[in-house]
UniProtKB/TrEMBL annotation:
One of its GO terms (cellular component) is plasma membrane. This is Ion-translocating oxidoreductase complex subunit E. NCBIfam families: PRK12405.1 (NF009070), rnfE (TIGR01948). Its EC number is 7.-.-.-. Belongs to the NqrDE/RnfAE family. It is found in: Cell inner membrane; Endomembrane system. The gene is rnfE. It comes from Thiothrix caldifontis. InterPro entries: NqrDE/RnfAE, RnfE. GO terms for biological process: electron transport chain. PANTHER family: ELECTRON TRANSPORT COMPLEX PROTEIN RNFE, ION-TRANSLOCATING OXIDOREDUCTASE COMPLEX SUBUNIT E. Part of a membrane-bound complex that couples electron transfer with translocation of ions across the membrane.
Length: 230
């Protein structure tokens, strides 16, 4: 992996993560992540829309006049989201009904239009596709982690309703903490989403701070006469 792809990977998954750093797409992030499967479903839909749209925009970027680039980008994104919505209606109908309006609202998601304008419109398709893939995976990870946290605290389960995405055979994937687990209602409500995301952002900032301190200590560590750290 060359330096460009390495930088795009680290940026999308960590340093410039849409959900934890840019804090984009918070409306679906908060509303949908009541459990792991809902977060996974919306995350995959957003990922597909992001990759398909950015690839298309990067391919035709030289043929779009600057004055109409935003309407053109939105039109391309809307076409891809409509296709994804139709596929979800056909193959994941129950999950589509749960996610509801948040599937078509991917068209207005700041992550999708933001990466189209900031990166895809200025770079070749291969780089644009990889950038959108990493950004989409980063956003997907935040969705599933937050959804899993809220489901676990609110209901004492994990992977409930997995059959909506993986079929009836996946009903046995549900993990239960305890049969008499009461749960915390707050985790299932909108305030629980804000609190959960706050913990994730705080954890990332803490890790970044510790990594920076470790790197700084390594640079300032004295070197002995043999060229080794003392």
């Amino acid at each position: 992996m060359n330096s460009t792809y390495r930088e795009l990977t680290v940026a999308g998954l960590w340093h410039n993560n849409p959900g934890l750093v840019q804090l984009l797409g918070l409306c679906p992030l908060m509303a949908v992540t009541t459990n792991f499967v809902n977060g996974l479903g919306l995350g995959l839909a957003t990922l597909l829309a992001l990759v398909a749209s950015n690839l298309a925009i990067s391919t035709v970027r030289d043929y779009i006049r600057p004055e109409i680039r935003i309407p053109a980008f939105v039109l391309i994104i809307a076409g891809n989201v409509t296709l994804i919505e139709m596929l979800m209606q056909a193959y994941f109908h129950d999950l589509y009904n749960i996610l509801g309006i948040f599937i078509p609202l991917i068209v207005t998601n700041c992550i999708v239009i933001g990466r189209s304008e900031a990166y895809a419109s200025k770079n070749p398709p291969l780089h644009a596709g990889y950038d959108s893939l990493m950004m989409g995976v980063g956003f997907l990870l935040v969705l599933v982690v937050l959804g899993g946290m809220r489901e676990l605290v609110a209901n004492g389960t994990l992977f409930a309703q997995a059959h909506l995405m993986f079929g009836e055979a996946a009903r046995g994937l549900t993990l239960t903490l305890s049969e008499d687990f009461k749960g915390l209602l707050l985790a299932a409500l909108p305030p629980g989403a804000f609190i959960g995301l706050g913990f994730l952002v705080a954890l990332k900032n803490y890790i970044d701070k510790r990594m920076a301190q470790t790197a700084k200590s390594a640079k300032t560590m004295p070197i002995n006469n043999f060229g080794e750290t003392a």
